[in-house]
Amino acid sequence: MANGFADNGNSLTCPFGRCDGGGWILGEDNLAYKCDCLEPRLAKARNSGINSVIPARYRGVSFDRPPVTEINSTAVNAVRDWIDSMDTHLDKGTGLWFEGGIGTGKTTLAMLMSKEVLKRGHSVAIYSCPKLLARIRETFNAGIGEETYSELFERLCEVDLLHVDDLGAEKQTEWVLEQLYSLINERYEREKPMVVTTNFDLTKLEEQIGPRTVSRLLQMSHHVLDMPGDDARFIA
Ligand SMILES: Nc1ncnc2c1ncn2[C@@H]1O[C@H](COP(=O)(O)OP(=O)(O)O)[C@@H](O)[C@H]1O
Ligand SMILES: [Mg+2]
Ligand SMILES: [Zn+2]
Q1: Atom of ligand 1 nearest to the CA of 98
Q2: What's the pTM?
Q3: Whose CA is nearest to atom 17 of ligand 1?
Q4: What is the pLDDT of residues 41-96, one digit of tens each?
Q5: What is the location of CATH 3.40.50.300 in the chain?
Q6: Tell me: domain 49-234, CATH 1.10.760.10, correct?
Q7: pLDDT, tens digit, for every residue of 152-192?
Q8: Pairing mode, if any, of strands 32-34 and 24-26?
Q9: Atom nearest to 58 CA in ligand 1
Q10: From ligand 1's centre to the CA of 58, what distance in Å?
């Protein structure tokens, strides 16, 4: 490995063969000294926090240019209203929910919200639903200095806005349903808002992620926005 770490960096082997993999060396004076492998491990842990980056495709989203100027105006106005009352919504824990077919602008509008929330100095965690679950799964083999499940869970519960794209898109297992419920329920109880996009209508989403999770989300949504239209990616 280029960085000297075996496998994915979760290994408990010291790349320099100096410590027992824990990052500390016991000196002859019985004091513990930092091994050279400790800093890279900690740096990796710091970088494995929540993702608050707007993907390149959506970085330039703005109300005054396409595609937002071409997206269904009811939905765009709802986003504008939400942003105008952002502080109240962040405080009360009310977000927006975008539902509709592929290529109708759901992700675009949700990214626009997140971008504005970040711009005003609040924290946002942005994940597609499958990525969020993969990130949670990763913590189950967290190495030394890496974020544990409960640390990640706490961050996801505390972030000002949790943005989940393509809700229900992942393969459903008991584990997935339980993870989504605990997270969404916890945010509901703490009155922390979410913005979600999904290709599923209510009934289908209930089948995908379970009625009690959908019910919590509905209570946390200022509006459920139905996005009409055909897939804009295929319209010339
Ligand atoms: N109503 C629309 N009119 C024109 N282009 C659009 C519209 N909605 C989305 N787009 C464009 O289509 C692509 C898909 O949009 P996206 O927001 O990712 O859709 P969704 O999340 O609903 O699948 C993007 O490149 C976006 O710029
Ligand atoms: Mg999308
Ligand atoms: Zn070491």
Answers
A1: 22
A2: 0.80
A3: 105
A4: 776 655 556 787 889 899 899 999 999 999 999 999 999 999 999 999 999 999 99
A5: 49-234
A6: no
A7: 999 999 999 999 999 998 877 898 899 999 999 999 999 99
A8: antiparallel
A9: 27
A10: 10
